[in-house]
Amino acid sequence: QKDDSQRLLESFNTDQIEHTLRNSRAEPYTSKEEILLEESESPLDNNVTAFALKAKVIYPINQKFRPLADGSSNPSLHENSKQVILPNQVMETSTSGSLGSLSQGDKEDCSSSTTIHSTTSDDRFQARAFLKVTSFPEVLMCDSFDVKLCLCSLILKDLMLLDSKLRKEKHGIFIQVLKVYFTDFCRKKKISDDLFKKILLSQENAFEELQKQLDSRLQNTEMSGAHNSEYQTLEDLERKEREYSEHIIDDMEAFWKQTDKAQQAFLDQSKCSSAKATKITMDLTEKMIAVESLLSESQDLQAMDIQEKLFNWELMVKMVNSLKSYIPEECKCRLNIVSNILDHLTVKNSLSVRQKEELLTDLHKAFWEQLAHFSNECIQQSKDLILKQLECRTKKREEFKHRQKAEQGSLLSKTFHKEDVNDFFKAYRELLEKHRQAQWELEEEDDCESTEAVADLYKELYSKASHALAGLVTELFLQTLPVVTGLSVKECELLKEEWQENLVPQLEKWETHRQRRWKLFQEQLLQEKELWIKEYALSAVMQKHLSEKQEKIIQGVVNRLGCLSDESVNYILQKHRLLLCSVLTRLTLRRVGMAVLARMRLSRKKSLLQELREQHTSQKGSSPCQDKDQWQLQKAVESHILEEEGKLEEETQQTHLEFHQQLVTEIQEALQFLQQHMEQVIGQIVLQHARQEAGKRSSDDSQDFKERLVETAVESVYVTSNNINRLVQNYYHQLGEITESYEGKKLQQLKSLQ
């Protein structure tokens, strides 16, 4: 009679548990073509298998990678009955986040890999749908494979909200600066109160209209390509981020034009002199440069907070997923020890093989039911708990926003004079910093509360499930075994004590492995933080280079013009500095968003490589005394990990290069808008200068002509018709020369400008 107890033990695997989990939640849509493609990527090749079996290649049963004659590696060739899951088959499960496998063999099969790279799977990964979440607590219920994607999508959402908030603040501050200058003119009785209110209301309405147009375009972008409202793909996210950036650049150009119109309307109504108008325009530009610097500084600080929040989220999610794996691992340890005890009884002929298999089968079924119940309770109760958390969270956020809005409105409602503008900027900077710090603390507190609540729930459910599993084993030893084996109750109690004694070191061993995996995870996060720091440094260098290059260009244009006054030159340089600062502020945030998208693209391969490292560390620590074959196996695995790390590094550079090229393209488009706007500004200044020069020359030429006319009339003895005609012809000839000279200089100036 064949002993199939080991097969029975291995049959209780993670696929059954994951099936239970998936039945209780919606599944992302997957096309038939993708399913067929996954089936066609089966790693088991019959020819290779046959060759290896004929060659009688024998490897340790726990070995994960079996090197073949051609130097490649293949999962276990002796486990044909089970579907081996490759990382490039983009599965929903993960050893770290799923409920786990109840047998080491299945766990190794699920995580084994011949290679991480697959072009076909890369394309499918970008088109793969994952859950669309709106807040962090929802991520605590996601599949472990989707966690990084969901967290990064939340970061992109936060960056978009930050951009929107700062843009509205810029509109509000510009209105406030205009109000300061209007108030100054009202005090001097240069404009009436009614006109003052009318102009301000007109500008507020214009900015609201700009915001409505932008919201409409962004809404169209959000709705386009949405196949399923509950799910999204990485491909859709990249497209939306790209289109969003284009819309923001267009809105920036519209804002520049509107501010110019507002300044011109203000100057027209004030009816001040040309010199006074130039001074006011330069003052307004200088103040808006200060506003841009203020908002840029606030943006950088808040963007760093958002990125730091991502790392905190990952730690919290990892901790919760670790708690989920407690019960499956305990189930596996309990079953293994029970199986060993029953094997010992079978050897002593106290139990037949058939009886042993029946007992194990019944215990498997009971354990599976408890585990399925635990899984369902985790999902349902955590869902209810998170819904309550979200309700409280929403109320707190609304109160916080209302309080922030009231404080901001109180500051903006104050009346500041022109000489107090710097005090207003200082007060506004302090208010922004206060709000930033308060928002960070509120969000961190909410996230920690949600995580602790879910963790406490899982601990409570784990305690109940563990107690239930212990009860099942106690029932087996004290009630079933005495009847089946004929052993005394005392002997069965000793067997139960033996089981308990063997369970403790097994759980301690698993806890040691868990601590090692946690340490590896923290090291990985530290490396990614260092990568973020490098990205910031690269962004700062790029901004400095771009700023210096643009300043040289505009300085060269001004130098070639040559004829402008110092005031006009300073205004051109100031205006260019303002617009460039606005462009760089926007592109800095876009660069952060691209870094998040790159992280999402590489998340799958990084996760799989991290699993390889964790499993290698666990295997390395589980058997300190290794024979020659095990030592060679460890070296092969280490070599494989190094190879995959090299491939991942290469793909990381390629991905970053692709996003960098895309960023350069967007920078060129933004600078084209900047150039077009500056062409209009410089053109208006040159035209104004040409008119002034033409007016002066016309006045001088007219005076000279009158003097020559008097002299000619005095010197003439006879004033004849021919003399008069000749005099008129000379007059028109001089006018023609003046006009040609003016047109020639104007044409030269325009060519220089171009």
From TrEMBL:
GO terms for biological process: smoothened signaling pathway. It is found in: Cell membrane; Cytoplasm, Cytoskeleton, Cilium basal body. Residues 16-26 have a biased composition (Basic and acidic residues). GO terms for cellular component: ciliary membrane; plasma membrane protein complex. InterPro entries: Limbin/EVC. The keyword Transcription does not apply. Residues 1-26, 94-118 are annotated as: Disordered. Residues 94-103 have a biased composition (Low complexity). This is EVC protein. It comes from Pterocles burchelli. The gene is Evc.
